[in-house]
């Protein structure tokens, strides 16, 4: 309100009120946080056989990320769209306090966690290896047995991207840097819906941009032809 008192000396109450509203609006705009976009990808998971020294340990692992390996993420009208993860994309990513869950559910207790080193996220020259030592609970034992038998053979990880790019010539999205790995989950649904929803929304936007660019180019070509014969 000190702002208002100063302005009252040189202006009207109306002008003071408008200026105060503008300041508050600016402050509110600066405090707004843009929503974090999480994406999910699938990978294989397997159970390791217990070692003789500790037969009660239940360890599962899988390679969540493979560098420089283009993957078809979506297909529209016979046109394939790819995604590739650049080598070193995990450099600087936030890998702290990542839980291992079942189906990304918050209603099922956490099976392992990086915070207490029961979940390991191991970046290497190939990508990211995930190894979890499951809790010796009823849920943990059940999950380990289902993975060991092959009833569950997929895991997925939720992440956000710090930097990416898109090559229209090859229709390939390149993930340059990950921002954060949010959680890892064993999943019983191979076609995990969020994986394909995220991919579809991204690549449909790219396809629409390509369509609009092609239409603009065609319109420009027609205008040039028209000018030539007029």
Structure explained in plain terms:
With 230 residues, the chain is of the alpha+beta class. It has one domain (39-219). Helices cover 33% and strands 34% of the residues. The protein contains 4 helices and 11 strands, in the order ααβββββββββαββα. The strands form 2 sheets. Strands 1, 4, 5, 6, 7, 10 and 11 form a 7-stranded mixed beta sheet that branches. α1 packs antiparallel against α2. The radius of gyration is 26 Å and the shape is elongated. The N and C termini lie far apart (67 Å).
Number of helices, where a helix is a run of at least 4 consecutive DSSP H or I residues? 4
Q: What is the overall silhouette?
A: elongated
Q: What's the average pLDDT?
A: 78
The tally of domains stands at: 1
Strand runs, count: 11
Oligomeric state, counting identical vs distinct chains? single chain
* Largest beta-sheet details: 7 strands, mixed
- Helix/strand structural class: alpha+beta
- Strand proportion, as a percent range, falls in 25-35%
Tell me the radius of gyration.
26 Å
Distance between the termini: 67 Å
Helix content estimate: 25-40%
Low-confidence stretches: 1-33, 191-197
The helix-strand sequence is: HHEEEEEEEEEHEEH
């Amino acid at each position: 309100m000190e702002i208002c008192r100063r302005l009252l000396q040189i202006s009207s109450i109306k002008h003071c009120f408008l200026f105060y509203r503008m300041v508050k609006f600016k402050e509110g705009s600066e405090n707004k946080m843009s929503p974090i976009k999480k994406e999910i990808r699938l990978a294989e998971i397997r159970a390791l056989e217990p070692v003789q020294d500790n037969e009660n340990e239940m360890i599962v692992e899988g390679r969540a990320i493979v560098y420089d390996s283009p993957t078809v993420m979506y297909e529209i009208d016979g046109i394939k769209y790819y995604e590739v993860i650049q080598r070193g994309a995990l450099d600087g990513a936030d890998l702290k306090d990542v839980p291992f869950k079942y189906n990304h559910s918050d209603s099922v207790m956490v099976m392992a966690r990086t915070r207490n080193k029961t979940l390991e996220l191991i970046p290497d020259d190939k990508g990211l290896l995930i190894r979890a030592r499951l809790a010796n609970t009823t849920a943990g034992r059940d999950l380990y047995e289902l993975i060991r038998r092959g009833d569950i053979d997929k895991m997925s990880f939720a992440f956000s991207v710090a930097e990416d790019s898109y090559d229209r010539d090859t229709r390939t999205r390149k993930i340059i840097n990950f921002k954060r790995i949010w959680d890892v989950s064993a999943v019983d649904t191979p076609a995990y819906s969020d994986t394909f929803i995220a991919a579809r929304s991204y690549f449909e936007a790219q396809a629409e941009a390509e369509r609009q660019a092609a239409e603009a180019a065609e319109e420009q070509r027609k205008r040039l032809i028209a000018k030539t014969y007029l």
